[in-house]
Amino acid sequence: MKPRRWIGQERFSGKPRGSAIGLCILLSLAMLAPVTAQSETASPASPAIPAELAGIAGVTGDMSNEDLVALATEVTDQQRLDDAATILIHVARKDPKNYRALEQLGVVYERQMARARANTADPNAKTQAETYETYAVNAYLDAAQQAYEAENYAKAERLCDRIFILQPANTRVQLILARIFASTERSVQASQHYQNYIKSRDGRQDTSARLELARIYRAMRQNYQALAILTEARDLDSENIEVLLELSQAYYERRMFQQAMQTAEDVLRKASNDPRCYDNMAFLLIQQNQVREAAEYSRRAIELARTRVFNNPENTREITSLYGYYDRYRRTLARLLDAKQDDLALRIDLARVVVEQADINNSMTLRNALSLLDQAGPEARDNIKLLETKANIQHLLKLPQTAETARRLLRLDPNNVVARRILQAGPILEETPTTGAGGSGQDPEK
User: Fold this and answer.
1) I need a surface site. Which of 114, 237, 308, 397 has the fewest CB within 10 A?
2) DSSP per-residue codes, 276-323
3) CB–CB of 113/136 below 8 Å?
4) Please, how many CA atoms are within 13 Å of residue 234, restricted to the half-sphere of its CB?
5) C-alpha span between 16 and 151 (Å, rounded)
6) pLDDT > 70: percent of the chain
């Protein structure tokens, strides 16, 4: 039987945006059987049921995505494969990161593939089976990528194994597996899969994959291989700041100091507002015992990074980077002070930097605690103890959402002491995590 067009296809507006999910859904829509004419004309059982799910037995308007995936699994076992695919496509459109839905969609396509192969009377059966196989692989690739991003590495690896069973020569799965192995400290296996991917048609022009492989080589102290792969990456994209920074470090590790400095100066010209470029220069100058010059570059890295944190205080990666810049600056000032113990201004600067770095460390610790609370399941949403702890941490961090958490506490517990104390303390004004000793709390550029 020829694959039929899904009636909801014209309503789908998703487009691929650099990940496999867009491609998978677009391909999937073409394979779905249409909802029956009866479901198009009949009144839905509940107005809350999405139009594309109307008429599918078992669907109710109050179902969560998890409920729908569970129903789709049951429907798959009942061999209602078109209904199962329709449900799973609906979930994937609402929640593109739902790797459970994407995995089950792959299962559905595998069964449709098997059904097509078994239909020996149809002269188009082989073509249909191959098409369903492609769709199954795309769904599994999407699921593996999303499971990897959710740090469910075991699930992602199992999905990759499934892809290899269906398509042993698939190259996109090589990249996902490489990243899984890199994230689980299996560097040798990771490097092998990166090499396989880079040699393929898909990976031939992939600068990011080469950068990731180079970092693995550097971590393994395979400096010659790192330099070679970074040179390839630079040839592919000579404006890539991350590649140039990594290349500068690789030159240094190969004791090619002149090339390291030339690359560092080049990247600084290309990205004069990037704190990483100044921190890289500081590192190289310290290695050449130019400590005072290094301190100036290190100080500039902190200034730029503080501005970034001020503009985006929720970005934990920027905060972590800022902590690293402070660490280099602190050690640089300490070396200067060792050589000039009577420099009072330098001693005061070092003390201020120590306090500011401690302030950032405290902020990072509190944000980690807040992240732990945010990862609690939906059933803990209205837990009084959790909300009290969350409100206290937000208050210490001076986050603007503190007041909303406190008000939510009062709605659940009108006499809550923690909420009343926080709200009585006055409005919350957000500030950067670097406004401890020596910080004014104002925009660092002003």
Assistant:
1) 114
2) HHHHHHHHHHHHTT-HHHHHHHHHHHHHHHHHHHHH-TT-HHHHHHHH
3) yes
4) 18
5) 23
6) 85
Nearest Cα to Cα of residue 42 among 56, 31, 61 = 56
Start-to-end Cα distance in the chain: 69
Exposed, middle or buried, 357 (CB in 10 Å: 0-12/13-18/19+)?
Answer: buried
- Token output for 234: 């630079």
Joined together, the tokens standing for residue 14 give 């998703």
- Alpha helices (H) along 375-401: 384-397
Task: Record the tokens describing residue 128, joined without a space.
Answer: 């249909």
Please state, in angstroms and rounded to a whole number, the distance separating the CA atoms of residues 14 and 10: 11
Structure tokens at 91: 């979930």
Query: What is the per-residue pLDDT across 117-170, written as a single tens digit (0 to 9) for each?
Result: 888 888 888 888 889 999 999 999 999 999 999 999 999 999 999 999 998 989
In the block, residue with structure tokens 């994959």: 209
Q: Which of 61, 58, 29 is nearest to 48 (CA)?
A: 61
Task: Give 379: exposed, middle or buried? Use CB within 10 Å, 0-12, 13-18, 19+.
Answer: exposed
CA 56 – CA 83 distance, rounded (Å): 7
Pair 224, 254: CB distance under 8 Å: yes
Per the CB < 8 A criterion, the answer to whether 181 and 189 are in contact is yes
Q: How far is Cα 305 from Cα 318, in angstroms, rounded to an integer?
A: 7
For residues 202 and 172, the answer to whether their CB atoms sit within 8 Å is yes
| Environment class of 62 (CB within 10 Å of its CB; exposed 0-12, middle 13-18, buried 19+) | exposed
CA atoms within 13 A of residue 111's CA, in its CB half-sphere: 16
Please identify which residue in the block is written with the tokens 């030339």: 262
Specify whether the CB–CB gap between 316 and 399 falls below 8 A: no
Find where tokens 């709605």 sit: 411
